[in-house]
Specification:
Elements (H helix, E strand, L loop, with lengths): L1 H21 L3 H10 L2 H26 L8 H18 L6 H10 L3 H32 L9 H39 L5 H17 L6 H28 L8 H14 L3 E2 L3 E2 H13 L4 H15 L4 H10 L4 H11 L1
Antiparallel strand pairs: 1-2
Helix pairs in contact: 1-11, 2-12, 3-4, 3-6, 3-9, 4-5, 4-13, 5-6, 6-7, 6-8, 6-10, 7-8, 9-10, 9-12, 10-11, 11-12
Length: 338
């Protein structure tokens, strides 16, 4: 987290430096929105909404080992509300989705927190594959070699690769040795008082139960398939959005892939109701790597953030209202889950 904060601050300083040197062109910024092709923007928004359906389906697959007949609609509702909570509350809103699913499906919260962790691992591994491919393209692209961000991207790539490798080891360990792992952890907690030990052991059993979807090859293949479909949708969203704007219409698929990876890494930081990380990462990539004017890059970055995240907000708020949830109750959900 400290490394992420430092990179975020460095990015902010770089953007402000460029803005102060060149002068931010607000007319250029607003012209970017007027130049967007509405048809392609609608296509991008529709594909984004479909990606949320795929995410709900992946969670539904992970829910089946702990619930005999889970409701896909309940999972889909919680997915829309959960991502809306992330937009409104920032990263602390992540706990809203597993909490709502656990409550609606009457399963232990620990099992859904484990499902959330497993989802993050799959997404992280997907980003690693795309980011590694993107870095390989950076090294062989003569135009991009002139950018001062190349060395920084390489370092970030190694960091992400290390985190992904550790995540993969954990996933394989849970897949092969979950029962043994549960026993080892429970034994290691024997120093606790009996009533505390029992509470911790019950939580561990629930989390292991939530990860049991990795113990069946068929379920693992389904999770991998959903992850590939999700990120394929997101790549198509980026492609459609860049076709919509004249300044990015000429970008080929390889460069769009690089930009998507950078934006995904920027998404680690979410400022409530503002975003922050994704817009900054997209702006830096479009200006430093692809040499777009700052005003144009900022406009495209804002549109990219709006389509990728804010598109789900009306549906999430509508479903929350239908379920009787409001801003205060969503905040209470977050606090209760934590």
């Amino acid at each position: 987290m400290a490394v992420t904060a430092v990179l975020f601050l460095a990015g902010v300083l770089l953007v402000f430096r460029r803005a102060s040197l060149s002068g931010f062109d607000f007319q250029q910024f607003f012209n970017t929105f007027r130049q967007g092709d509405l048809v392609w923007l609608v296509v991008a928004a529709a594909l984004t909404l479909f990606s949320y359906v795929v995410r709900g389906l992946r969670w539904f697959i992970m829910l089946r080992p702990v619930k005999a007949k889970p409701s896909f609609w309940n999972v889909l509702q919680a997915t829309a509300i959960g991502y809306s909570a992330v937009i409104l509350l920032g990263r602390p809103g992540e706990v809203v989705r597993p909490y709502l699913i656990a409550k609606s499906e009457s399963v232990p919260l620990a099992t859904q927190l484990a499902a959330w962790l497993l989802e993050r691992i799959y997404d992280l591994l997907a980003v690693i594959l795309m980011f590694g491919y993107g870095l390989a393209l950076v090294r062989h692209d003569a135009d991009l070699r002139e950018s001062g961000l190349i060395s920084s991207l390489s370092i970030a790539g190694w960091i992400v690769a290390l985190v992904g490798t550790l995540s993969l080891v954990v996933l394989i360990g849970v897949h092969l040795y979950s029962d043994r792992l549960e026993g080892r952890i429970t034994t290691a907690l024997s120093f606790l008082q009996e009533h505390h030990q029992e509470r911790v052991a019950a939580t561990i059993r629930s989390m292991v139960a939530g990860l049991q979807s990795t113990q069946r090859l068929g379920s693992v293949l389904q999770l991998v398939g959903c992850t590939l479909l999700e990120w394929g949708c997101l790549l198509t969203v980026f492609l459609a959005l860049f076709i919509a704007f004249p300044d990015t219409r000429g970008l080929d698929l390889s460069r769009i892939l690089i930009l998507m990876c950078i934006t995904s890494l920027g998404g680690i930081i979410q400022i409530p109701a503002i975003g922050g990380g994704p817009q900054l990462a997209s702006t830096l990539a479009l200006t430093e790597l692809f040499h777009l004017p700052l005003g144009t890059a900022s406009g495209i970055a804002v549109m990219l953030w709006a389509i990728n995240l804010v598109a789900i907000l009306p549906f999430g708020l509508g479903l929350a209202f239908h379920l009787g949830l409001n801003w205060r109750s969503i905040r209470q959900v977050e606090e209760s889950a934590v």
